[in-house]
Amino acid sequence: MKSEQTTDIELALCTRIKQVLGSSLHIRHVDAGSCNGCDFEMMALCNPVYDIQRFGIDFVASPRHADMLLVTGGVTRHLEMALEKTYAAAAAPKMVVAVGSCACGGGVCGQTYANAGGVDKIVPVDVFVPGCPPRPSAILEGILLALDKLDGSRSAVR
Amino acid sequence: MNQLSKKQLVARLLQSFGKKMLSSRPVQEHETELVIDKADLPEVCRTLVQEKKGRLFTMVGNDERELSGHFALYYVFAFDQLQHLITVKTLLEEADPVFPSISAQIPAANWYEREVKDLLGLRALGHPDRRPLILHGDWPEDQYPLRKDFSAALPVSRQPDRGTSMQYSGRDVTEIPVGPIHAGIIEPGHFRFGAVGDTVLHLDAKLFYTHRGLEKSAEGLPLTKALFTAERICGVCALSHAVAFAQAVEAAAQLTPPPRALYLRSLFLELERLYNHIGDLGNLCAGFGFAVGVSHGSRLREQLQQLNEELAGHRYLRGVIQLGGLRLDVTPAELSRLLTVLEQVEADFDELMDIILSHDIALDRMATTGVLSLQQANDLEVVGVAARASGRAVDIRRSHPYAAYGQLDVPLVQYTQGDVLARFKVRAEEVKTSLQIIRQIVCQIPAGAIWAPVPEIQPYTRAMGWAESPRGEVCHWLMVGPEQTVFRYRIRSAAYSNWPAVPLTVPGNIVPDFPLINKSFELCYSCCDR
Ligand code: SF4
Fold first, then answer.
1. Which of B216, B232, B315 is the closest to A108 by Cβ?
2. I want to staple B417 with a disulfide (CB 3.0 to 4.6 A). Which of B7, B92, B229, B422 is the partner?
3. What CATH number is attached to the domain comprising B507?
């Protein structure tokens, strides 16, 4: 069921995590007002088909244990503070990946009285992964790009 | 039921209102609207629900000042036996935007009445709960986003928070706040437990964190564009919302899409139900730490979502629907491939259900946990899986058929215990009925066009569309504006109907059972919050 492309990304991920972080990558997900499509694609990364845990990647309960935040949604008014607090609590290097069109720039909802219209309006973003929702393999690639960026060997991708 | 007798029955139903009825008119084929004075609201609504056995389908507030100088309220009641909807409309003066609350008699109206206060500044007098609902405590009290003169462009300041959560105090009572950011990959909500030891005394759920203002942002959009908004209300109910919105537009245009389109809509709707139900059943096992169930459930769900992508180009079936029909057809080869995949999925699914339902710990954790009584389900007008697990027979595919459901055999799955196990079993059996329905569709599907052009719609025509999403019925209320745009769009999802029921099922259970109870309802936050 796996595409070849996914396998390439997976291999690269494994190597890069070892290089950059030593052994494992811990991620905290922040739903900042998504439609849940992006969240479910992120959840699919943990299913037996993608199974990201075999690379030493795991979703953790607390931002204090997290190297990276995956943020979905365009940041609603009611979640702005939660996102800021989660970001403040995250451990260095505080990588942020904006997952989905909403997180990247507001998506169909755009900017309203209740929606900021993008994660970078509230916290700094390292990698933008567009798509509505992006496929699980695209999210994996976004994670890899953030790691690359941290390492400085590849240029930043927006 | 023939049309004549239905007409007579509806007339008889309305007879009792006599002079209270200022006027009445048919709206579309399945709806009658009566206009009453706001003072008569409680009595008319109470009669419709308690004596005539209607159920509150939705309630909509609308700023019609530019049309009639008034605000309007629409209470819509569904009469399942009659396959008919009755709308009670009342007008409110701009200078006196208040109306008598019906929530004390009809508890299901509670949220709707709080919502029109938050978004339109229409206040229900005598409402038992004056806390804001959609907008949280730091929103200024005199700003109403759904009024037409509210400027979406101006930033709205934050006020000192009015503190809208429940406080628990007293010896031996522990207050446990959870969320809005949770430990797992789940949507945001804030839950506050008042607990004594392990046992929950009371639960307060604060929602609407993902309120994005979709109804406001849809206003003024061309109908064709608003379809994209409808598809993005929710990820996992995307297709149900798209169908409901398309049906509302088609009803306003008095258009029936070609038969093949109707069958294909039912086909995709059942595929949406399948991947959700199977995924949800697996995920439910996470509530009692049963990893085998979680893994297999998510594997099967993945297989079904890959099938979605193969058939429709999208794992969540976005882009399938268009106004007047569908955007894409399915070839005979694809249909036979579909049947092959479903056969594999069904065999694995049966095995998985055997494993879970013969596991003592699974049964022990699910049985008698999180009970929703029939009385509670009826009072709150609960829909979907949760309703059917408590013995409440609502399934809008059967009661008000849409798409091709009128031509298909849709069995009712029903349990009466109302606990987590009953909700589990309803889902499990509905997986089987969905598979049956899909097989019927593949046998019966007619050839022909998949789309018909949508005729021009008169400005200020209003209409409704609905669908039975995996979580229960959704209802889209639409008023079309000038030049085929959206004037007002009210989205009432299954989650909106069911969320108020969840906190009622938790007291008396232990705190660690909450995630399990919550997963057994499996309500979307985004659908509810909009
Ligand atoms: S990008 Fe699309 S799938 Fe993701 S949260 Fe936004 S609307 Fe939902």
1. B232
2. B422
3. 1.10.645.10
Report the alpha-carbon distance of residue A29 to residue A51 in Å, rounded. 16
CB B372 within 8 Å of CB B505: yes
Answer whether residue A15 shows pLDDT above 50.
yes
B276 to chain A, minimum CA–CA distance in Å? 11
Which one of A31, A62, A133 has the shortest CB-CB distance to B188?
Answer: A31
| A132 close to ligand 1 (CB < 6 Angstrom) | yes
Q: Are residues B423 and B514 in the same domain?
A: yes
Convert the pLDDT of each residue in B434-467 to its tens digit: 999 999 999 999 999 999 999 999 999 999 999 9
Q: Residue B30: which domain range?
A: 3-125
- Give me ligand 1 centre to Cα A36, in Å: 7
**What's the number of domains chain B is made of?**
3
pLDDT of residue A6: 60
Judged on CB neighbours under 10 Å (0-12, 13-18, 19+), A42 is buried
A66 within 8 A of A60, measured Cβ to Cβ:
yes
User: B299 vs A47: CB contact, 8 Å cut-off?
Assistant: yes
Chain B residues inside the 8 Å CB shell of A135: 315
Pairing of strands A25-31, B84-93: unpaired
Distance, in Å, from the CA atom of B502 to the CA atom of A10, rounded to the nearest integer, reads 40
Asked whether residue B269 falls in the same domain as residue B370, the answer is yes
Angle at B257 between CA B256 and CA B260, to 5 degrees: 135
CA distance to partner chain B, nearest, from residue A82 (Å):
7
Q: Note whether B508 and B383 are same-domain residues.
A: yes
Domain contains B299: yes
- Any domain includes B252: no
Peptide bond into A93 cis (omega under 30): yes
Domain boundaries, chain A: 4-157
Centroid of ligand 1 to alpha carbon of A134 (angstroms):
8
- Please report the beta strands in B113-161, taking only residues with DSSP state E, as ranges in sequence order: 123-125
Cβ B107 under 6 angstroms from ligand 1: no
Q: Are residues B198 and B347 in the same domain?
A: no
Mean pLDDT calculated for residue range B247-266 = 96
Structure tokens at A27: 């991620």
Confidence of residue A154 (pLDDT cuts 50, 70, 90): very low
Does residue B480 fall inside a structural domain?
no
B49 with B186, same domain? no
ipTM: 0.89
> Structure tokens of B117?
């206060």
In ligand 1, the atom with minimum distance to the C-alpha of A41 is 3
Q: Does the CB atom of residue B179 touch ligand 1 within 6 A?
A: no
Is residue B474 one of the residues assigned to a domain?
no
| Tokens linked to B402 | 């849409």
Tens of pLDDT along B329-363? 999 999 999 999 999 999 999 999 999 999 999 99
| Contact assessment for residue B189 and residue B172, using Cβ atoms and an 8 Å cutoff | no
Q: Is the CB of A115 under 6 A from ligand 1?
A: no
Tell me the CATH architecture of domain A4-157: 3-Layer(aba) Sandwich (3.40)
Residue A151 is predicted with a pLDDT of 65
> Looking at the partner chain, which of B185, B211, B301 has a beta carbon nearest the beta carbon of A59?
B185
